[in-house]
Automatic annotation (TrEMBL):
It comes from Pseudogemmatithrix spongiicola. This is Metallophosphoesterase family protein. Residues 1-208 form the Calcineurin-like phosphoesterase domain. GO terms for molecular function: phosphatase activity. InterPro entries: Ap4A_hydrolase, Calcineurin-like_PHP_lpxH, Metallo-depent_PP-like, Pesterase_MJ0912. GO terms for cellular component: cytoplasm. SUPFAM superfamilies: Metallo-dependent phosphatases. Belongs to the metallophosphoesterase superfamily. YfcE family. PANTHER family: BLL5683 PROTEIN, METALLOPHOSPHOESTERASE. Pfam families: Metallophos_2. It comes from the Bacteria.
Length: 249
């Protein structure tokens, strides 16, 4: 089974459409699933949700999805500086204001996790568990510098064994590690990368018979349309420079 794993779209419809077109052009992907954070920071929250619904792409709730759905006091995002904190509030207030009620209901209906079995549930075989942050909370950052014992602890919470995989997002920085035969996969970000590459990112995961294979893919997209939407909405120029620099500005 070949999965395309996408995450952290953050209301960036042009990036999502480019990724979906690239996946479609391959012609060898069996299923697309998402790891949440569908809204926030860009200007197409309703359109992103509509596109995922049209394509029947299943997935889980990111912190931004669950906080917008419940009208929580903030987005659950981590800020390293006072300016980042200020920008997070600006984005969240804009998203709360512009996300339609039917979109909020769809966000509220997203599950916290998904348990996928590519060989079927009628026999032994590998599992793919999908969460946004960690199996405990969708606000916890599972960064590449977490040690192997942290990975083992998270794996134990969902009963992973050798040959299984767990995929997640939230940090917007892709990475892959194998610990005790288990695969830990950060999918990176479709709509707001933070690894210095502005292009939309996604992961191809082959899971089933034999050893799992993980491939990271990048796709150029119509960033000018995303930028135009941000500026037309009167959102801070910081959001533009962040996108154009791949999170390094």
């Amino acid at each position: 089974m070949r999965y395309a794993l996408i995450s952290d779209i953050h209301a960036n419809l042009p990036a999502l459409d480019a990724v979906l077109a690239a996946i479609d052009a391959r012609g060898d992907v069996d299923a697309i699933v998402h790891a949440g954070d569908l809204v926030g920071y860009s200007t197409f929250p309703n359109e992103v949700m509509q596109r995922l619904a049209e394509r029947r792409i299943a997935g889980v709730a990111g912190n931004y999805d669950s906080t917008v759905a419940t009208g929580y006091k903030h987005c659950g995002c981590r800020a390293d500086t006072p300016r980042q904190e200020e920008l997070a509030h600006v984005s969240y207030e804009y998203t709360l204001r512009t996300t339609r009620e039917e979109t909020k209901r769809a966000l509220a209906a997203l599950p916290f996790s998904l348990d996928l079995r590519p060989l079927g549930g009628h026999g032994a075989g590998p599992r793919l568990v999908l969460v946004h942050g960690t199996p405990t909370l969708n606000t916890v950052y599972w960064t590449a510098d977490r040690d192997d014992d942290f990975c083992r602890k998270m794996a134990a919470l969902v009963g992973l064994k050798a040959g299984d995989a767990i995929a997640f997002g939230h940090t917007h920085k892709p990475w892959h590690r194998i610990v005790d035969g288990m695969h830990f996969i950060n999918t990176g970000s479709v709509g707001r990368p933070k690894d210095g590459d502005w292009r939309a990112g996604y992961v191809l995961l082959e899971l089933g018979e034999g050893e799992a294979r993980v491939t990271f893919e990048r796709v150029a997209y119509d960033i000018a349309t995303t930028v135009a939407g941000i500026r037309a909405a009167g959102l801070p120029e910081d959001f533009v420079t962040f996108l154009e620099s791949g999170g390094k500005a």
